[in-house]
Structure formats: C-alpha cells, structure tokens
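Researcher: Please translate sequence to structure tokens.
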Amino acid sequence: MMSLLDLIKTTAMAAFQASNPVNIVVGEVIESKPLKIEVHSKLILTDEFLLVAEHLTRHERIVSLAYEHTQNFSSGRMGDALKQASSTRKNIGESAPNPYEKYEMKYAQFIYEDGLKIADKVVLHRVQGGQKYFVSDRYKEGDSVW
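Model: Translation complete:
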C-alpha cells in the first residue's frame, strides 16, 4: 500500500517528466558522414534525430581583416599568455620572407571546413518532446583544455 507521501512523490515525478524538461547529455561522434553520435551503448543518434549548430558544420562567413605589425595581445584577450601578431610574405624568387607592416582586406569570404569528425566529444540538448537532439558544441576534458 502506497503512503500519501509516496503518492504525492509519484504524481509530482510523473508531472515533471510529462513536461519534457531539457536534458543536457554528452556524446561522441562515431561517424561523420552520415553523422552518428553515441550517447551511450544503447543510444546512438543518427542524423535524422540531430540538429547541429552551424559553427559545427562547413559554413561561410564574410569577414574583414586588419593587421598592423607589431601588435601585442594581453593574456586577458588571448587565453593563457601574451601573444604577438606576426605575418610573413614571400614572393616567388625571393630569398627570405618579409613581414607585412600593415595589411587590410575588406569583405573576404572565409569558408570554415572544421565540421564534426570522428572522436569529437559533443554537448547535446534534448529538444522538448524527446525526438530530436540539438548539438550545441564540442567540449574537451579538463586536462586537454590547453
């Protein structure tokens, strides 16, 4: 026989699960084309169940570049250490590369090719209803961050 407290707990849990709260899970890419992500041995998601953030796919961007020699970036702007911008150019037949002093390019088209690949570890969010998963980003374990 179920106590009143157990009945309340069971009813509350059923209501919570029926609301389909967002679940965040991690997985690993086991195939890139067609895309397959293993969440655990009993759950392998194929591309028809996946929504992938654009930055994890091959995509294009229009950018402008501005470079001036020498420019330093503090560790607060560029990660874990002071960084210095650098560039070289070498024309056919020249003996040594020469640094650019100033370089500017407006409205260049960049194509990002670094889509998901085998062994990438990814963060997934189960979409309400549970039929689709949104792949939001790659991640790294603490000891391999840098």
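Researcher: Any highlights?
Model: The chain has a mean pLDDT of 85.
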